[in-house]
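Problem 12. The chain below contains 527 residues. Write out its predicted structure in token notation.
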Amino acid sequence: MRAPADIDGLSFEALKALVIQLLGKVAEQERLIAELREEIARLKGLNGRPRIRPSGMENAHEPTPPRGKRAKRRRRGKIVPQVAVQDRVIKAQVPAGSRFKGYETYRVQDVVPRAEAVRYRRERWITPDGVTVLAPLPTDVVGHFGPELCRFVLVQHHQGQVTVPRLVAQLRGIGVNISKRQVMRLLIAAHDNFLTENRDVLRAGLRTAAWISVDDTGARHAGKNGFCTQIGNDDFAWFGTRTSKSRLNFLDLLRAGYTDYIVNQAALDYMRGRALAGPVIHQLATHRQTQFDDQAAWQTHLDHLGISALQVTPDPVCIATEAALWGSIHAHGLLREMVIVSDDAGQFAIGQHALCRVHAERLVHKLDAFTDLHRVAQERMRALIWRFHDDLKAYRADPTTRRRAELRARFDCIFHRRTGFVTLDRLLARLHANKPELLMVLDRPEIPLHTNGSERDIRLHVTKRKISGATRSIDARDCRDAFLGLMRTTAKLGMAFCDYLGDRLAVPDQPVISYLPDLIRCRGQPA
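Solution.
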């Protein structure tokens, strides 16, 4: 209420009315202060962090399992051993005249961990010419530790999450004479074939898949904080640990091991989309050299053109380098017509980009509401988003043009609402600005609505980080990422990681496992 310009000129009745009005305002303020104090006292009385239930967007409308005494229990199937079964006949003591009625089967599975040591006595001869001839070792002998021991070490460390000191203790307890340094060599040395296959898995996935989902988490390497990025879908998973989580780093990972920088039409379109200055684009586009073998050659090219010396915003070197990486990705046939699904982290917004709807709803779920009006508005919006999410899942199963138009209009209706909860209204406006990415599924029904697969995959790295800590050498970092990726890929392809290692390490009597990139290409081909 605005005070009158001249109080002295007011009459007695006017002053009395003004005082009564002010007393009413003071009483209202005192009531509001009392309510706020009660709310603050209630919040201070909470023990620890408040309990916030998870979003439940994916399972909010799933059928509830039956309860009570009449609920049917799922019967457990028979145990079928995955190895050859040895038959042993047990004789029964029976009286004379008894009739034989067959056998009753009783299976017992067991594991027999034991150490074996083979000493090869290689004949040594001296020819009449004085030349020493030494009998060669068998072709399957590589080093002083056999393939079964190498497989045991890799499976225990990467799949069993056993630390190196405990792994050494296990092996010594079995009877193997081995040191910690030797175990480390088995984990990180002479694994170029695994690193190559892991790289080819990424290349095959980026060439054939219709979509990928991505995520990242913290990682330490060589005593410094870094980030591990996950790339994958329902058929493969790949991990890469680097010191940065920038868009430049993400584009470098998407090159899948290629080291060249290329200025082509895709790179020029990227530069224009990132608002790079026209003269800089003209310099790069008209130069006779458009392909560079490595980062050093590319940097020399930027220095020669004078781009490195420009002190402007946005940074022309960063944008030009990102564009050259994007050009290399397209030149090698990667990410063609592929959709990248992410959690709205800025570095992942490349090419055809879709957002995880679960993360979008989670923003609404995490808002702090302190009044009944705010809580009602929040719950109402969450209910609308859940129902819209269910309808999107139904659309993915049976997409139609009419349904697509209805869902687009309904999206506008939901996120254009004004609830009176200012923070919520601002969030809804921000989410509506991401409409093309949140509704990418309408044009590409094959992509998922969430990044739950990436979150499950990246959890493997989080568990590994908590148990084994950081890595020190580049070989250890690359082997850890490669074996985690290969382990997760074999699981998605429906095979045992132990069998995969047995075939690659030439363990006798192991099933043949095809080259994983070939399997991914076959699964990525349209039916």
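Discussion. Residues 357-443 form one domain. Students who got a different answer should revisit the alignment rule from Section 12.3.
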